[in-house]
Amino acid sequence: MRKMLLGASAVAALTLAAGGAQAACEPDYSGVTLTAASQTGPYIASALQSAGEEWAKKTCGKVNVVEFPWSELYPKIVTSLSSGEETFDVITFAPAWSPDFTDFLAETPEAMRQGAAWEDIAPIYREQLMVWNGKTLSQTIDGDVHTYTYRIDLFEDPKEQEAFKAKYGYDLAVPKTWQQYLDIAEFFTRPDQGLWGTAEAYRRGGQQFWFFFSHAAAYTNVPGQPGAMFFDPDTMDANINNPGWVRGLEEYVKSSKFAPPNALNFSFGEVNAAVAGGQVAQSIGWGDTGVIAADKAQSKIAGNVGSDILPGSTEIYDYKTKDWKKFDEVVHSPFMAFGGWQAAVPATSQQQEAAWNFIEFLSSPEVSGKAAVTGGTGVNPYRISHTTNMDLWKSLFTEREAKEYLAGQANSLAAPNVVLDMRLPGYFSYTEVVEIELSKALAGEVTAQQALDTVAAEWNRLTDEFGRENQLAAYRAAMGLPPK
Amino acid sequence: MRNDPIKYFFIWPALLIVLGISIFPLIYSLTTSFMSYRLVPPSPPRFVGLDNYASLLTNPRFWQVTWTTSLIAFVSVAIQYVIGFAVALALHAKVPGERLFRVTFLLPMLIAPVAVALIARQIFNPTVGPLNELMTFFGFPNLPFLTQTYWAIGALITVEVWQWTPFIILMLLAGLATLPDDVYEAAALENASKWQQFWGITFPMMLPISAAVVFIRLIESYKIIDTVFVLTGGGPGISTETLTLFAYQEGFKKFNLGYTSALSFLFLITITVIGVVYLAILKPHLAKHR
């Protein structure tokens, strides 16, 4: 009898345990191991790792994050995709590589493309960056848009305000136009006080061209002409040497004169250090700048970090009519530099359901919201909830800082004239010549017009080399335009 | 036993493996250099003969990076050799604290080039770098060490000299240790001055090892990439871009494999030509002092 009772108890305990285990695996991916490709951490890879651990607890599956150096990531993915091997279940990649990957990707499941979590993704990502020729093929897991950062203490100092107004004839405030941005930069350039007007990335190979594109976007992205900033979307002729671009470059070069002496060697990392070190009055860049500058542990200006949308312009060059279009109000054209990391599932994966489940989990408002406020993940806001949930940001910012930071992000993503970065086969061939000519222009070796004429000639040559029709088709798809 | 064919049974597999490992990559790379082969945008390999070579040889960028690399290599190795020889002689003469100097001088060589470049980048920083702070202290203006062509090349040469002079010191010190004492004793009996002893004995007898050391350093200097990548990124423009950095840009940023392979072989040819010319110039001198 005693044995029977013990046996019954054991069976009951096992049943309960099994039931408990089943409850823990929801959905149950026991025995499933996903292989996810990422660049070497911490950026993005750490977000994948921590989400993978949480996902494993929830589903009993496992995520094996395979990290590759930046230079290795593209060839590893492209060779596995084009050879049809089932190497990866999840790939994370730069949007610029989309044109080369889209033929090999599984479409995002219908179930994932509906509901509150889906609607919560900022429309510019949901409707454009994640879509290729009408199909949703990837999921944004990081938001990338350039915004403006400034020092509240300097901008709100009555003495500075008075002196600024006396010199420039208008109030010192967050700049509405790039001309105002340059005025402010000039005003605060005081080497004797260890203070300079601005900091941007000017170093070749140091993300410089995205900063230049941010300047140029304000003068070249004509409302109502989507996708015409970089190339003529009908002919694929380069637009990069038109007067709008030249003006953007002239102002980018001018801004370098108001930057710290070593700024020509600044990558984005040095920009952040200059901002956090209190060396500059303002700067532009990705969302990391505000997060780092507000961090008391590494910043001298914590508590005084203001943010806003990038400056704009009241005139934009129309490449079709070949003249400047005037606007009564300032048009802001925030630039989605780089565009933000994407996650996708190769069509060859045998674990597509689990892989999409993991991506859904990784990009869920809760998990991605936590990643967005965790330093070192490289995840910037891309969901509406990322920019509206103040509670998330209280640990990083003061209330005012958080409000401005989130408004800067939200207003940029929602701006009617927001500009997508180009996504083209051979992206780095196109941007390399930009980098070379930019650094020549910054060093004063060539004029803005000469630099951009060289870039335009090389872009047209590359387009012909890669196949004009193919490039045009990819460019139009990337810009959300219908095929010709 | 000597003519026993069994020996081939044991030797050939090892020989084939060694040949396969060392020769196959070269042959593969050489074959790729005759192809139009891009990973971005993906294009299947297509035989184009010598087009990649012709394209490179007519590309002004190739000639500029070759010139920049040569300038950095020759100037830095010349300075390394002069300083290295002087320090080696001093250490060989057992100056006070010679053991400490010997260890200290070798330290730069033991540091990874990327770390050296990061240190140099901090030193040359115009705002917080000690070099410009010193110059400011003495009333001189801040200098654009890493952002103007001539200063940037000067900075790269300085870093090369700082890091690799210890190698020359080490090798020449070993050479000096092998020189026979009796020759110097005989010279001293003839009242030869130290200067005469150096030019008449030390320098000629050190010529073979000097030739080897300079040759090794020249070849190594032509491969410079780490310091350039960290210090200047090849800029401004392409004015400090070196052959290896150019190959990196083509291979790992643009994934232009055919073109990069051709570039690698032109690089190999350049090094070989320099080596042959160098040895041809030195041959009579080496023969004279053998």
UniProtKB/TrEMBL annotation, chain A:
This is Carbohydrate ABC transporter substrate-binding protein (CUT1 family). Residues 1-23 form the signal peptide. GO terms for cellular component: periplasmic space. Belongs to the bacterial solute-binding protein 1 family. PANTHER family: ABC TRANSPORTER PERIPLASMIC-BINDING PROTEIN YCJN-RELATED, ARABINOSE-BINDING PROTEIN-RELATED. Gene3D superfamilies: Periplasmic binding protein-like II. Keywords: Signal, Transport. It is found in: Periplasm. It comes from the Bacteria. SUPFAM superfamilies: Periplasmic binding protein-like II. The keyword Signal applies.
UniProtKB/TrEMBL annotation, chain B:
The keyword Nucleus does not apply. GO terms for biological process: transmembrane transport. GO terms for cellular component: plasma membrane. InterPro entries: MetI-like, MetI-like_sf. Its main location: membrane. The chain crosses the membrane at residues 9-28, 71-91, 103-124, 150-177, 198-219, 262-282. Residues 66-278 form the ABC transmembrane type-1 domain. It is a multi-pass membrane protein. It is found in: Cell membrane. Keywords: Cell membrane, Membrane, Transmembrane, Transmembrane helix, Transport. The keyword Transmembrane helix applies. It comes from the Bacteria. PANTHER family: BLR7065 PROTEIN, SPERMIDINE_PUTRESCINE TRANSPORT SYSTEM PERMEASE PROTEIN. Belongs to the binding-protein-dependent transport system permease family. This is Carbohydrate ABC transporter membrane protein 1 (CUT1 family).
